[in-house]
């Protein structure tokens, strides 16, 4: 028998304990039901889907809309208490991740050619060079923060070069992106959104007048059957590609290395057999992927997911991390095993919104981790429980990863 919005009189509210370790909470919810209503940190009521089969269905069900225009009245209806709603610059949200067909189809068609596996593979030499340069820079350092040394600068350099964005601005991007992804401080979010939108608007104008040999210049001037992105769409697309193009890979690299260090028998297997590396990256993604909860959807009519019926006009979040540990799909799903068949995980989503940058993230992850292990013996220099995780329901990532590095000999 289906459940409804009265399933729980006291909704669980996600707080700091959840951010530090969401897995126990997810496991408890998976045992209870396929989905249940919860409160996000700023008091917004949503339905959280935690089981694999139902999450996969939710990610592809057209009755769960991603049309941003439909979000606004629902935010007001489902915001509890007196907490101020988060404000987001409108020019940053009109992208393909916040749209349904046919708008989504049109926007994705204009950009997808830049992210085909073949085009991404052509970036391999440059990604390798950036990785080598970054690891050269820490050769004599001994102890370092791997997020600052490798996990952040590699993907931000790659995506900035792809989009024609000056690297001198990357620290600003990082601050703005972290603030926007966390979404916990309305004033900070508004300021970061305004700054990001202003910068990207100027970039669009510059590249329109003086195009370069980069993806974003091509997008600005691209047409498909006489279709072209307008100014707001270009700003929104740049924002999406910039944030998604580095945030997820930062987390993939840092969290993947952390889990290898926490499971030394798995690290030994990978060192002994480098052919395991592609599968290891898939296990990084499954076991503790860079995205916790997929972005907002809302029901346009009543939707039943497993044992739960969600009414029309409700926000729905699918927890990709929870689904990827569901033992109904992955045997012994709470265990980290780089030799398992991790294919079919939902770390990059599912359906028409499947991550366009998945081939790039995989390639960067393989090169970064493989090169790191080729060049260094690595050890964690902090107790795992003292590491701080970002306070974001969207992303799963570390603030820092302190490690010691010792050279393994000449390359």
UniProtKB/TrEMBL annotation:
Q: What is the scientific name of the source organism? A: Saccharothrix espanaensis (strain ATCC 51144 / DSM 44229 / JCM 9112 / NBRC 15066 / NRRL 15764)
Record keyword Kinase present:
no
- Write down the PROSITE patterns for this protein, in alphabetical order: CYTOCHROME_P450
Under what name is this protein listed?
Cytochrome P450, 107B1 family
Per its UniProt record, what InterPro entries does this chain match?
Cyt_P450 (IPR001128), Cyt_P450_B (IPR002397), Cyt_P450_CS (IPR017972), Cyt_P450_sf (IPR036396)
Entry similarity comment: Belongs to the cytochrome P450 family.
Any one Gene Ontology MF annotation carried by this entry is: iron ion binding
Indicate yes or no for the key word Glycosyltransferase: no
Q: Which UniProt keywords apply?
A: Heme, Iron, Metal-binding, Monooxygenase, Oxidoreductase
**PANTHER family this protein is in?**
CYTOCHROME P450 YJIB-RELATED, P450, PUTATIVE (EUROFUNG)-RELATED
Alphabetized Pfam families for the sequence? p450
Write the Enzyme Commission number(s) for this entry: 1.14.-.-
The beginning of the lineage is:
Bacteria, Bacillati, Actinomycetota, Actinomycetes, Pseudonocardiales
Instruction: Tell me which domain of life the UniProt entry assigns to the organism this sequence originates from.
Output: Bacteria
